Amino acid sequence: MSTTATDTEVRTGLALQGVTLRLGDGDNSVTALDNVDLIVRPGELVAVVGPSGAGKSSLLAVAGALTTPDEGIVTIDGRDIGRLSAKQRAQHRRDHIGFVFQSGNLLPSLTAVDQLRLVSNISKKRTEKRDPKELLAEVGMAHKADRRPHQLSGGERQRVGIARALVGRPSLLLVDEPTAALDRARSHEVVQLLAQETKQWQVATVMVTHDHDVIEHCDRVMEMIDGQLSPAK
Amino acid sequence: MFLALRELRFARSRFALMGSVVALIAILVVLLSGLSSGLVRDGVSGLQKIEVTHFAFDEGTEMGSAFSRSVITDDQVRTWSEQPGVAAAEPFGNTLVNARSNRDVPVDLAMFGVRPDGFLAPTPIEGEGLTGNPDGIVVSQTIIDADPGLKVGDVVTIDQLGTEFTVVGVLDEQHTFGHVDVAYVSLDAWQRLRAGVAPGEELRETEAASATAVAIKANDDIDLAAGDAAAGTETVTREGSYDSSPGYTAETLTLSMIQYFLYVISALVVGAFFTVWTINRKHELAVLRAMGASKPYLLRDGLIQAVVILAISIGVGLAVGIGLGALMSGTPMPFALEAPAIAVASALLALLGLIGAAAAIVRVAAIDPLAALGGQR
Question: I need a surface site. Which of A61, B238, B330, B365 has the fewest CB within 10 A?
Fold first, then answer.
């Protein structure tokens, strides 16, 4: 049997080169990303900070193959995702990218362990998936595997969210304001967990955050202002 | 399937609420279907059991009440029987009478006048036929079962005229026409009845050669227009003649209209539910799309939910409806549970419900995965 390309592919992480994204059309168009360059290597956790509306979410959208940039090249593990169709992008997302959303964004009808099983159900490629129970144990949630989101605290939900993002063995982990709904102690725990998983599984992780408290756990901090990305001072 | 069933279980009270509306509609549909089958049976089962393909009425007859108004002659019957494509044609008489039995039971009868040796002649399951019984009648099973009813050997006397008939035979099952039990009688006796001739009086010659319609057994290659032109008649199929039965059109039209309304209501209820359900889950669906779930995956998921909930609620509705219907079948109410009619009705209910759901669920395809990212991008 032939193995898929991704099994043997060398992980090189995420690379954005000269990426520009405009939102809206004509005179009302806004430049959300302005000639952005960013390289995130496997095992590296990069934080992106900046004020609201600076383009942080747009960065995630472009890196996460949710939208295609107007200019520039986005590659994940060397593969250019700028030229993929919407359907191919969806496939790329489920095979290569893990998302961690604000406050977890878990599905209310599913137990913690089913949140993870759902990933295998969505994707036809079952072979590469990680064992949901094992993964829940890894994020310290094994004892609440059968709870639904409304029975979990904010921090617990975010842990399940992180585990869910890792089920498909992604090469890229995109994290959107993971600590928005958490207190200080929980925020540190969650970001520590992210850092730990990033190292352990050699994932390239981009975390967008408002929370300057937690950036001490990150390898690098970038600052986004008016669509331009630069290393934070 | 994975997500669809878990969501159904999680939101079971909401789904149950909508499901019970569909179940109630299904009950109503079953009962209405039973009622309309019952009315059809009461209205035209006597005609349904006559083995002909067409009835030819006299030209110019008001078709809405042709079975009581039309008068045709022996000549017209003869002309029809000579037409190409006609296997057999015989006079058929139809008139309603009031009578009283020797046990003082008042009965209304639809008298079907036929030639005792013709192809229209009744074949009783009990007693004798009309052959050799010039004053005999062969009656529907339903009037035998009625309480008080008739039995073989009873003598019925026609009101006013005083003509007497003896019940000589019983027909299998229900034979009714316009909600009145059918009694087959020889054509000769029928002509005297129709003309209002009392026993002992003479029948005029023209009336001795008349009937209501020409009953035609046709092959496939019958030319109705040519036959009508030659015989001076207006021919309809047997099914088409039901509309000439008293009250038939009005009854069936009203009931079918209510049924059609119920189908539409079911589609709208299910459609409205799934619209709200889909809009409620917009954010979740966006998250699923961001996670890479394909559009077909999400569409299938929604449709599975619709199929499951429709199947369960229509199933429950059918069971309850049939149970209630079985209770009603024993009453004088015209009610008949007929499997094909109920099957068609529930299939339509399911189909329209599914269409309503699908119309709502296609919204899933328009959901932008970008909405999964919090705040503005």
Answer: B330
